[in-house]
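[stage:ingest] chain + small molecule (zinc ion)
[stage:ingest] validated
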Amino acid sequence: MYTGHVIGIDIGGTHFRIGAVGVDGTVQKADVIPSSFIGSAARPLEAIADAVKAYVRKTGIANSLCVSVGLPATVDRQRKMVYSVPNIIGPDSRHVLDNLNIVDGLEQYLDIPVLLNKDVNNLLAYDMFMQDLYDEEIVVACYIGTGFGGAIYIYGQFLMGKHGVANEIGHIPYYKGKEFCTCGKRACTECYASGRALKQLQEKYFPETFIGDVFLKHGAEAPLLEFVEACALPIATQANIMDPDCIIIGGGVVDMPGFPKEELLRQVKAHTRHPLPADDLTLIFSEQRRNMGVVGAAIYALTERGIQTSESFARELKLNIDKQET
Ligand SMILES: [Zn+2]
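[stage:predict] done
[stage:export] tokens:
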């Protein structure tokens, strides 16, 4: 009786991931291809639409309700246009998606509605679904990957801000910081607390160690303990400003072998106002999956469009979620 599915897309600087989630909680295995095809296409949005059509043909899925796209970008308040997507570049290093109306552009080529969101909001949609947090008043997420991304869910909606670009937590300033960020600004969080910053530390202090082993081999040494404190500062800042019901912490850096999670939690609590909210902080680590952005995009679309799902949707999706993995 419940039919149809949502196509979820997660576009990163390296990978383009696409999958589908049914309103009955079933999933289609996701496809992953290098996202470089977008930058090299004459018409990038037509190329993305062609990838959607190819996925639908390959999987044989019928009755697509909508396409939901997540991008590592600043997205406008109407959730149609992107302002800046520095990670999707053409051969001439041009940012090929900057200032494009993604929704109207894709709908020209696809005969179903398209939704657009900041990728970290979709990650938070996924994490809140998996951890049953949709009934909480304030949920904050911090994802430490290549950069430092954040999302806030407050009083039943994702925090947008006047222009749609609220909570650029990766670009809050560090006092007296001298490093320059990829955004062009000086002293951003991402200069000190991100995968990029970690790579620079590894090259400077531990050049003989493979980056993936750096916490296993040197996690207790000063450069990495300072890095962990740098990661804790924006999380503690969120705790002090928002007094949230919980904070979700995730991202590829936190998921690295040997990452000192206990030390991170200790530093977050140390930098949070006492006695409250510090004494009653709820910090949850994200259950990282490669395709969480795809599933999160689908969950966001189902919620946003008020699409009716089966009573067993949540249970089924949680059971099926590993089938999405590629
Ligand atoms: Zn910056």
